[in-house]
Amino acid sequence: MTTRTRYIVGFTVLSVLAAFLLPAMPQPAAYHDFADHRTMLGVANFLDVTSNAAFVLAGLVGLGVVLRPGTVFAADRERWPYAVFFAGVVLTGLGSAYYHLVPDNERLFWDRLPMTVAFMSLIAAQVVDRIDTRTGLVLLVPMLLVGAASVLYWRATERAGAGNVMPYAVLQGYSVVILFLLARLRPSRYTRGNDIYWVFAGYVVAKLFETFDGALYELGHVASGHSLKHLAAAVAGLLVARMLLLRTLQPAGSAPGFDRSAVGQS
Questions:
Q1: I want to staple 157 with a disulfide (CB 3.0 to 4.6 A). Which of 91, 129, 164, 247 is the partner?
Q2: Mean pLDDT by groups of 10 residues along the chain of 266 residues
Q3: DSSP 265
Q4: How far apart are CA 100 and CA 111, in angstroms?
């Protein structure tokens, strides 16, 4: 195991410990009180609901790119993590729209569950691109199950009256940091590998929009930060599609540490 890989494994272990050892935290009730409550065309919370169409569009575009015969993958099986990622983006749009019609914990479950699909599958895709093809593919299903378990656990604890959203929160933070670490520590064997930084930036912008939901809405009452968050996150998904559309395989030897011999065996 290389030093770089040890950093990644070490951070993963620390995140697992944090999910179990940090104090339980219920979902704050105020989370569901978004700034823009306007009803338009008979749709409650209109912009928070309809802005999710951007996710659906981004996911469909991405699926088209992944399934396109001309998109470069060293082995056909490498398409799977990206296909799952974009399917998760589509489902996130649908689940988030459903949630924002009547925001509450029960509906929030259907927003968060597909988000974990997108997070976990993108990590698996980056493991395929940067560490080892077989490892990334093997990790895909277990990672999806871990992501789903964090949301199922949160919902079960909320229903039991002792809510604990901490494992899901740790998972979300882990997803962002591990993608950044993978990009920093392991070069991709494809060109356009650094495009993942733009995806990271899109996520950061989306979180900023979410944080300043009300303040942005007060600037003319045009759109709230949460509606803009949906658009920024959808753009991040489109950037992944653009990366796949434009990339090619790096010349042999230009991505040190990657086991090319494993590619054909995957």
A1: 164
A2: 78 90 92 96 97 98 97 96 98 98 97 97 96 95 96 96 94 92 91 93 94 96 97 97 96 58 40
A3: T
A4: 9
- Global confidence as pTM: 0.91
The residue type of 46 is: F
Q: How many residues does the chain have?
A: 266
Instruction: Quick: pLDDT tens for 28-55.
Output: 989 999 999 999 999 999 999 999 999 9
| Helix extents (H) in 131-224 | 133-159, 166-185, 196-211, 213-217
Rg (CA), the chain: 19
224: alpha, beta or left? (left if phi > 0; alpha if psi -120 to 50): beta
Widest pairwise Cα distance in the chain? 59
Tokens of residue 115, six digits:
């988000």
Distance CA(19)–CA(170), nearest Å, equals 6
Helix (H, G, I), strand (E, B) or coil at 190: strand
